[in-house]
Amino acid sequence: MPEILICEVGPRDGLQNAKQLMPTEAKKAWIRSLADAGLREIEVGSFVPPKLIPAMADTHELVVFSRALPNLKVVALAPNLKGFQRAIEAGAHKVTFPVSASREHSLSNVRMTPDQMVEEVRKCAEHPHPGVEMEGAVSTAFGCTMQGEVPEEDVVRIASKLAGFCDSVALADTVGYANPAQVKRLFNKVRSEIGDKLEGAHFHDTRGLGLANALAAYEVGVRAFDSSLGGLGGCPFAPGASGNVITEDLVFMFESMGLDTGIDLDKLLEARKLMVSAIPGEPVYGHLAMAGAPKGFHAAA
Amino acid sequence: MPEILICEVGPRDGLQNAKQLMPTEAKKAWIRSLADAGLREIEVGSFVPPKLIPAMADTHELVVFSRALPNLKVVALAPNLKGFQRAIEAGAHKVTFPVSASREHSLSNVRMTPDQMVEEVRKCAEHPHPGVEMEGAVSTAFGCTMQGEVPEEDVVRIASKLAGFCDSVALADTVGYANPAQVKRLFNKVRSEIGDKLEGAHFHDTRGLGLANALAAYEVGVRAFDSSLGGLGGCPFAPGASGNVITEDLVFMFESMGLDTGIDLDKLLEARKLMVSAIPGEPVYGHLAMAGAPKGFHAAA
Questions:
Q1: Do the chains contact at A287 and B212, CB–CB below 8 Å?
Q2: A240 to chain B: closest CA residue
Q3: N or C: fewer beta carbons within 10 Å in chain A?
Q4: In tens digits, what is the pLDDT along chain B, a chain of 301 residues?
């Protein structure tokens, strides 16, 4: 295993927010190129009702396709038991369940309070799911565009409940509100409650702090990060602003620090080109693709 | 004094690399708005031959103007004794002397080796300069587009020599090659040689790591940072790529961490608008200006 595990969420978080639909065959080619570049986890889609999010209608097909790729953990999102059943049926290795720590965001998004949503995930855990990992992802953990501040005790409470029946728990800065001091404090607080069940960090770069927050999380022991190639999808709450932390910049940061991600940067930039050509005109972000690697740059591994 | 001292270098490092000339009166209005926003140090220009860099031809006038603003330390760059004499004559409070740690960059830029350039700065130190602070800035300290890797012992040697006759020493990542691990290592190494004479950090965001590097530097005790509003000027070595760390994003990072910069973010964004209107069409960068501050955001002070 690499020292740093990066989960590419572009096919889910990116495409879900993109203006254009990417054709299924193009998604497959992109996912294959990501796996070729060394990604060991890819969130390929979301088992939500296709009428709600047409961009995710082909998730079953993508899970089946991705399962055939070597050395890849295939991740899908599910918001409820029905979605979880579809994910199991398709053969996802890991399913991530978003639970918003913001009451307002949760009510607006899934018409349930955060604690009701936790119970929905508990029902999923009680459903037979042999060999399928469950991740509880505490979203809006660092703040919410509706509610503003999200009390840290709410995040700790939800994370602790989820840790009771999920295999792992992640903290997500869904709207790009986190800062490095808060990241360290909150990851430490949650870890003191649930220990090593706390795994992933999901940051957005909306206010430019994405990499600084990833660094802060690394410094308090986080080794698993979500990100999106080219920051695809932008930020639905701030038109024109960037969205997910950018995979290639995140990989570059860690590799330049001497930390092995298992990812080949040149191949990753090829995968980026493939993605860009599949949805021309969609805004993409990222520094490395523009500036190139430093002269004499060596990857960590 | 604020906990974090930010020196705005846009009028120098930004405008020096901008495609357009900013009229002197517009520069004055911009500098005044920066001081109004709470900036306590501004690098207003460079005492280089006007024929070489026409954008810096009005530096004398800007130093005189800026000295009249309250609570402002007026900084200017000088590459040699002649420039230093002009800076003293104009009334600069602080003069910064760039010394490239990269032999190739130094020879190409000033036709002197790094050690010859150190001797040039020593001559300046021996010139009477009552009340004028001297800063030795080790440029390309983290790598060089020409030479590639810059040995850390070269940086330590040059910084140590400069500390012998300068009031303070800064380390500059002139071309955006630094990574957070290297930042911590090199600042620690240099500090172990010259102690508190090591003050400033000057980062570029060319590869997206600007804020992460600033965070890393903060974590090893650095409290003084250069930055440029809107990342003005971009990167001369990578067309289209961003340049200096972006002042407003840097201020936002520290303030959101609860660290007082003494800078009013709203006023800073007003100063940004003023700058943009003075050189329309010039590329500017930055996340905060696009996304806005988080709901319920409170500055540190």
A1: no
A2: B290
A3: N
A4: 899 999 999 999 999 999 999 999 999 999 999 999 999 999 999 999 999 999 999 999 999 999 999 999 999 999 999 999 999 999 999 999 999 999 999 999 899 999 999 999 999 999 999 999 999 999 999 999 999 999 999 999 999 999 999 999 999 999 999 999 999 999 999 999 999 999 999 999 999 999 999 999 999 999 999 999 999 988 777 777 889 999 999 999 999 999 999 999 999 999 999 999 999 999 999 999 999 999 999 888 7
* Positions of A marked active-site: 235
Q: Tell if the CB–CB gap between A290 and B209 is shorter than 8 Å.
A: no
What is d(CA B33, CA B27) in angstroms, rounded to the nearest whole number? 10
Q: Verify whether the Cβ–Cβ distance A295 to B144 is below 8 Å.
A: yes
Does domain B5-291 correspond to CATH entry 3.20.20.70? yes
β-strand pairing of A73-77 with A41-46: parallel
Give this prediction's pTM. 0.97
Question: How many beta-carbon pairs below 8 A join chains A and B?
Answer: 132
